[in-house]
Every structure is written in structure tokens, then in C-alpha cells.
Amino acid sequence: MNPLLQKLQPYPFERLRQLFAGVTPPANLRPISLGIGEPKHPTPAFIEKALMENLAGLAVYPATGGEPALKQAGAGWLARRYGLKVDPATQLLPVNGSREALFAFAQTVVDPANDAVVVCPNPFYQIYEGAALLAGATPFYAPSDPARNFAIDWDQVPDAVWARTRLLFVCSPGNPTGAVMPLEEWKRLFELSDRYGFVIASDECYSEIYFRDEPPLGGLQAAAQLGRSDFRRLVAFTSLSKRSNVPGLRSGFVAGDAAILKQFLLYRTYHGGAMSPVVQAASVAAWNDEAHVVDNRALYRQKFAEVTPVLAEVMDVALPDAGFYLWAGVEGSDESFARDLLAQYNVTVLPGSYLAREVAGRNPGTGRVRMALVADTAECLEAAQRIARFVRERRALR
Ligand SMILES: Cc1ncc(COP(=O)(O)O)c(C=O)c1O
Prior knowledge:
The chain is of the alpha/beta class. 41% of the residues lie in helices and 15% in strands. The protein starts with 11 loop residues before the first helix and ends with a helix.
């Protein structure tokens, strides 16, 4: 067996199952889960139709590099969304969702020699850590700062760690915080990448769900604005899962540094990372349409506008920049909050400490819970009302 497998941490939902073992939720309240970040708005009919109309694609092996039509659709979207000029032949590759791509990317770019480090935010999407460990690197966790809208405090990464860093994962909009990285933060990270030579993987799968007027700045867009139109040492990861409500389609793409993507294509050829032609055809339809994305965003905006104030009355929570999570402060332990909430009100939330690691005696997820507002507005509102009652009753008991 690969000994590195032993280093993997239990996935947060496994820990949640253990936490909830033996809890019997009240049978008179229907269960509501704000636990898993799985999009639940309906898949647009035109994407389903495109899938059905292209079933003939099942009869052929796809090329790993992707069909020109898909690459063109991705580049077209980058041009419309970010004003970018990307060469679809060399600067863009389809991937089967961003999860597998984030993992595979670490295997491609990390040379594990000389105590390699992979830096990632804390809290973070769990794949970053597993990808780093299985690539033979040591993860280093940079904390998010609640005093600055959960921006990552990159100053907490010592120079000696940057010097060993091969890969930096960034996540903007962030999961779970929803924080969007501004241009100055990108500038700082590009300077560090230039100085130390590490690659930046920019995870942007929540980019189309936002609550401010300005759409979130993309990593490639930041690079272009700073005169780095070759996107050196930068690759952005995007996905249809949240944008188009197709988490089961498994479709996204990566774009950026052509030299890195050439190596990534080589890795993927051996790994077997080609996308089904049926999925490619449906993805072309999805990337080429923006109306459904606008409608989807409007649904989230309405939902967050209704739900957030109900929760803000009883807990430390505010509308995020973007994404579909609320990252809320609770009184006392986040684990007992989640367990007691299930036991008393049949609502599932995820303890924040499960999404972060303790560094220097501090876990930046402690005392917070993540709530995924993915169900419809009525269900999320009912969950929020139950949570508000739960918190008020708890306070009265103290
Ligand atoms: C931050 C982040 N990145 C990537 C993913 C992977 O999404 P997908 O593989 O569906 O593109 C997720 C999924 O929840 C996520 O939260």
C-alpha cells in the first residue's frame, strides 16, 4: 500500500457521521440539511437536452485535450466574463469537475524533494490537503482573519516556508468564508511566486454566485490587469457544477500558464482524465449560455436576503461576498452546537473546526459553523427560524 494514504484525514462528513451517532432527531420535524455544499437548484432543461441529443458520443473514445468546440466555448466565456484573451489550444484544458483537477494538478506540479510544502488557506476545501499529502508534500495552513472579512493572513507564512513551497492553493470566492481576493492580494501573491518560484492554483468554482455589485475578480483577470498576460505559474480552475447546477455532470476547465498545462495534459493522458464527448457537448451549451446563470444568481440573492437577517439576530453572521455558504460564529463549541441542533431541531450544519486544522494551538474554524444555503428559499428560511429558536432557548438556559 502507498504509505501516504495513512496521512489522509477523515473527511468532514465522516466526522459528522461520528458526531451524530446515537442522536435521535425529533420525528415531528422534517430533516433539513445545510451540511453538504451540493447545488440543489434545478438543472436547466437545455443542458439536459444537449446531453440527450449527443448520446452518439458514447461510441467513441474522447481525446484528453478536449474537443475544439469545448475549448472555444471555455475561452469565449473567459473573454465575456473577464475580458481575457486565452489561446484555447495551449492555455485551456477540460477537466471532469474541479475536484479531480485540483487533486491531479498537485501530482503534476509538486516535486516532493527537499521538504516540499503546499500552502493552502485555513479553513479550506479538503481536497487541497489530500492532494498535497499524496504528492509527498507537507501542507502549510495560512489562517483566515475574521477581523478582515476572513481574508487570508499570508503574513503568517514564514519566509522559510515560502522558500520550500511548490504549490499554493487559493480559493476565491472562498469556501467556507465566501471572501473574494482583491487585486492587491493577488499582486502580493504574484510577487511571492516570482521570488520563490511556486505555482498558484486558483480555485474559482463559486465565481458566479455573488452578492456584491462587482463580480468577483478572477485570478487570470488579476494577472492580466497586472501585465502578466502569459499567466506565468498561474492556473485557474473553474466548474459548471455551481454555475449551472450540474454537480453530477462533472465538467469544468483549467486555464493559464501554457507550459504548465502541457505537463498537466501529459499527466492526464496517463491518468485517464478525458471527458466524455456527451458531457463535452452539454458543457458547450452550458458555457455558451449566460441567461440561466443570471437567473440562478438571482435565486441565491433572494434566498440570502431573506435568510441572513433571521440568523444575524441570534448569531455572528453577515452576507458574504460570494458563494453559497454562511460562515457563522456560535457561542460555545461548534461541535456541540451542531449535535444539539440536530437533536432538538433536526437541522444539520457542519462544525467549522472540521474544515480547518489547528496551527500554533489555534483552529480558525473553532466556534463557527458552515451553513450551505442550497435548498429552496422556503426550506432554508425554515431552517433559519429553527436555528434562531434553538439559539434563544440555549441562551435562556445559560
Ligand atoms: C472550494 C471548492 N472547490 C472545488 C470544488 C469541487 O467542485 P466540482 O468538482 O464539482 O467542480 C468544491 C465543491 O464543493 C469546492 O467547494
